[in-house]
Amino acid sequence: MTHSFTTYFTRNIFFLFLLVTFHEVALGQCPDAPLSDDRGIFSINNIDTDPVSSDGDSKPTAVNNIPLKVCPQQPLTLKDLVNGGQSRSFEITQNATVLSTSSAIPVPNTTNSISTTAPATPGIYFIKSFGSNNGTGYYACQVIQVVDLEKPKYTVKMCDVAGTSQKEVTIVLLDDPSNKLIDSYTYSVTPLGSVPRGTTRSGIASYPYSIPLTINSGFLSYDLEISGTNKVGGCVKSDSRTLTTVSTPLPPLLGEITLGSATNASEVTLNTFATVDIEHKIWMRDPAVQSTYNTSGTPALTYTPTATAFAIKNLTVPDPTKQYCFKVNAFDICNAKTVESTNEICTTPLTGNTKQGGNVIIWSVAQSNLPGNTFRSYDVFKVDASGTESLLRNITSIGNNLYDDTDVICGEEYTYKVVTNYQSKSTSNLLKIKNTSIPPTPLGKVGSTVIGGQSIRVTSLEKEGKDLPTFTAFNYYRANSINGNYTKVHSDASAFWDDTSVNPSAQQYCFYMTWTGGCGESQPSSKICPIFAQMQGSSMIWSPESSFTDPITEYKIYRINPSTGLPINTSGSGLPYTSTKNSLNLSTLNIPEAEGQTIYLAIEGYPTSYPPTTLSNYVEYQRPSLALSAQAFTPNGDGLNDTFYIQGRFIKATKMSIFDRWGNLISFIENTNYQNNPQLGWDGTSSNGNKVPAGSYAFQVQVEDLSGNIITKEGSIVVVY
């Protein structure tokens, strides 16, 4: 009984459901045929000697699942090769899990083949063949990959063989993704005008891949043709060029150089004249510190021209404000030697600033001893908004590298460039300057101080708003660390401002001030950082950065009442303490024990411009409690050394555990009011009230100080009678 295509699809729809539900087909892998009807066989583009058979049996390494590469919309001839096949059809899909669709193309029994085209969009697709033979369905599948082939990527060199008329040609196929889409290459090297005789190379497994050729001919020039194709043969991309023997490259030549681009101030554009297919290295030096090039190091750029002897190369310099010089070397690949450039050229970094009524621009002085590039002059240009250049001045003196432009308007931005004229031009970066007729000068003396331990006051000590021309406002900038980024946090007409959003005891802050006038904002003042003090163990340390424009020459450390901010004077305590350093070990002072465990301190800094002074945040210092114990006692009731107890200062409570030599707890004493009963301790009795024998006993004591800190002490005590 003969099955039609519809009968085949209907018979297998249930198994198709199971296949889709329980077997996830990997991307690029043909789906299995239901009921193992995988006996189909077909050819693509009449390559009957290498047909597609079966469905790959879910093996990723099967030939069916290794994609055949075809071009977008490439003509395809699909031929069913099953003898006696009926109800033949083909389909091309992207969905591997669909075994048949309404888009299947019937195959005429008279030809067994159809003509169609590959999909237009690059990607992975599946060609599937369906049919029946003697009442049994058959199926076969092949994965294809639609690719846009590119021209082969390669380098080539041709060298004379010494003492002969032979030439050696080496083609290197590069490790490029586009090359890996090519199944085979056809190449030929023939004298100019001759008919190419192509040689094919296929099965290349890894790149780069070298193809050496020997030519027994004495012609000067040759045609190279090379093409890449896919296995099916529909995609072919070719490249060709004329080869000449390169035994000694022409000396490279440097042309114009330009510093800076629209997106990268460090980019250098360098025009080079070089020899095709020869490796070139561009070397860079800093003329301020290097008189020669370090050609044993890393070049600024390595490149091999492939299309033209004239090329514009882009590279970057470490610091665009510094001058750098360049030369280029070529490598003679046939004779393994370096050919150096005939000239050097250097960049022209351009900087500038504003002054009252004008702009001043300054550029790096040209190098006077460059090989092949003698200094001629400087051209100074002003560039308007449309890009039109106006020559301001031509300067012929090499040492005259400054221009004062007085034709400016307040608040208007100007663009400048300078061209250093050697034999080749060196064009500077474009410099933009917004000028002011009366430029806002930075504020002179500014200062900062902590107010009440909770806020920071920043103030201008030199200027009031009325003293500043066209004054608009003072601007206050803050950073949340010594090296942090500054952000504008306040602006008004007052010459001082209290920053209440900070926590001066938690971290260091730094500030600077500017002022805004009719022509913009001034440059920043000096950066100032109020004194930030903190504890490290028993040492008080504070930041060395100045909280005034003038440096701090002396510090005084006070004990302070945190509620009122007023100093507390304690006779004989060593406070206030005067220091020129930035730390103080508080344990060296003699603060009376009666003053308590917790004390508060603040620092007052005295600048060279005193008065005024500056205050730090408040620092809390908890003096360590002291807990000592005897090593032996005599609990014999004679009133002398009858009790083992803890002695110390700033102690609130103690817990004492006594253990015999086997580790058994024999006594526990808790003193919850040490201040009123400091001698409460162990009297040498066990928990049953009996005196313990003489000997050594282990103890553990937990001490809680007045600040709530817990200290644990362990040791041994000797009972002596």
Automatic annotation (TrEMBL):
InterPro entries, per the entry: T9SS_type_B
NCBIfam families per UniProt: Bac_Flav_CTERM
Protein's name according to its UniProt entry: Gliding motility-associated C-terminal domain-containing protein
Record organism: Flectobacillus rivi
Lineage: Bacteria, Pseudomonadati, Bacteroidota, Cytophagia, Cytophagales
